[in-house]
Specification:
This protein is α/β, with parallel strands linked by helices and about 300 residues long. It contains eleven helices and 14 strands. A six-stranded mixed beta sheet has the order 6-7-8-3-9-10, with helices on both faces.
Length: about 300
Amino acid sequence: MTVLVAKGLRKKYGDLEVVAGIDLELERGECYGLLGPNGAGKTTTLRMLLGLTNPDSGDIRLLGHPVPQAAREGRIRVGVVPQVDNLDPDFTVSENLLVYGRYFGLRPHEIEARLPRLLEFAALETRASSRIQDLSGGMKRRLVLARALVNNPDLLFLDEPTTGLDPQARHQMWEKLRLLLRQGKTILLTTHFMDEAERLCDRLKIIDHGRTLAEGAPHALIEAHIEPEVVEIYGEGVDEWMEKHGRALSTRAELHGETAFCYLRDPAPMIANLRGFPRLRFMHRRGNLEDLFLKLTGREMRE
């Protein structure tokens, strides 16, 4: 069953077209990733899908409701985790959940009945009376996720949910998201962590300058666009080695700063060659989603 459909979304601010014909379709129970560098149009796309920004053109149906015409009716069954924790510091953990539930028209006794399950999900059973400023970063993110579930949504919008978390907290968040998927929830995820997208997403779309660059299952996209083996080389003299040996031994090679990225199908000849250059260090790995992302969007910094 399709829970979210968008066709031909466009949005301009002045002369700048920030979304230029985006199509999107989410099926129930899947995790769908929306990836792109800063300024690619992700936030504007999410705002249009939620009915918070009107598109210049295009059609959206959110859980069967036309957007923006009936966006409020659609958002009743949606949970949102924003980039920045916007918990109320004047309230306790439980009070944040209670107050948020009222925005959806839930009665106090209904919200209170859901509190134990939400606190257990967030692993905050013992912190129900704690103030927000007393929570760690990981606890705050889990609480924001639990808050997004207070209305028992069918669809979750997660905007960079693990930004700022340490590795342990990130893995804990991933476990929570996998649990939600097993429960039949649908997730629309934006993230700058390519390993996160590769682990969680059933399908994803990479966009830049408001346009779709690629869409599909992560491993299928990697296989279609990236050589299977990658060797990264760095150290004194890497630029000279690259000109004399690296490009000839590679299917595709790039030099960025002091690191050479060599993409190959058979890494054995290159690794044998590198053994003769003790001042160079190298790492051999499989091609991954980050390689695909950088190939399609470039390595230049985005502000």
